[in-house]
């Protein structure tokens, strides 16, 4: 029973670390969120903080996973219409412009995680696969009812939209005047998607 209680406390502490780290990165930016600062924020030593994670890279990867959980609430709130998924996607991109520290973290880790040995490699592979699994059926439905051209395969268009979003984030970090959501909405309009969010 004592072991079960210790395990539960460990899970709760790990959750506290991730929630706090998310808040610190939003507030201070990725470059201002050192392991020491995150440890201080949760009342641990650096070694104590890393006791809950295999490495610094795993810690920051899990912060991104926590961000995804928070963001998924907004995406899941979209209506049943396939176009609503893209409304939620555009809203998420707009939100990203308000949290540059998390965008910095995402871009930094995604580049490093192209190495299969990186602690975040599987996270990024799974994340892209999960987004494609949501986008492709919605695109197929929109194509079937004539709201999107069928010249691109659903999986192909899904990959293009993900690549566009990720690439725009990198460009936006170098030039914050870029309207990431506006550029994606422009593509959706050019494809003929009649969506309130895409019309903005």
UniProtKB/TrEMBL annotation:
Residues 11-71 form the HTH tetR-type domain. Residues 34-53 bind DNA. The keyword Transcription regulation applies. Keywords: DNA-binding, Repressor, Transcription, Transcription regulation. One of its GO terms (molecular function) is DNA binding. This is HTH-type transcriptional regulator RutR. SUPFAM superfamilies: Homeodomain-like, Tetracyclin repressor-like, C-terminal domain.
